[in-house]
Amino acid sequence: MRLLVTFEKVATALSSTRAAAELAYAQSSVTSQIRALGSSLGTELPRARL
Q1: What is the pLDDT of residues 17-34, one digit of tens each?
Q2: pTM confidence score
Q3: Which of 12, 48, 39 minimizes the C-alpha distance to 30?
Q4: Exposed e or buried b for every residue in 2-32, given b needs 16+ CB within 10 A?
């Protein structure tokens, strides 16, 4: 569930950096979570601008 919440925040913020700030996560953690979600779905998800 955490991965989906992070993905939704990145999608609405249009920035992994802004999403990280809103979630109080390190930007690298957000990036890792998005990659993990893509891996679990068997695809590469689009990258947000940093």
Answers
A1: 999 999 999 999 999 999
A2: 0.83
A3: 48
A4: ebeebbebbeebebbebbbeebebeeeebbe
